[in-house]
Amino acid sequence: MFKGLRPILYGGREVWPLVEGGKGVSATNHLSSGAWAAAGGIGTVSAVNADSTDADGNIIPQIYHGATRRERHDELIRYGIAGGVEQVRKAHEIANGKGAININVLWEMGGAQEILEGILEQTPGLVTGVTCGAGMPYKLSEIAGRHNVLYLPIVSSGRAFRALWKRSYHKVPHLLGAVVYEDPWLAGGHNGLSNAEDPLKPENPFPRVKALRDVMRGEGISDDVPIVMAGGVWYLRDWQDWIDNPELGQIIFQFGTRPLLTQESPIPQVWKDHLRTLQDGDVLLHRFSPTGFYSSAVINPFLRDLQARSERQIPYSKQEAGDHVVQLDAGVKGKNFWVTPHDRDRARAWVAEGYVVALKTPDNTVVFVTETDRDIIRKDQTDCMGCLSHCGFSSWKDHDDYTTGYLADPRSFCIQKTLQDVAHNGNIDQNLMFAGHAAFNFRTDPFYSNNFTPTVQQLMDRILAGD
Question: Which residue ranges form the domains of the chain, and what is each CATH number?
Answer without folding.
Answer: 8-268+445-464 (3.20.20.70), 301-423 (no CATH)
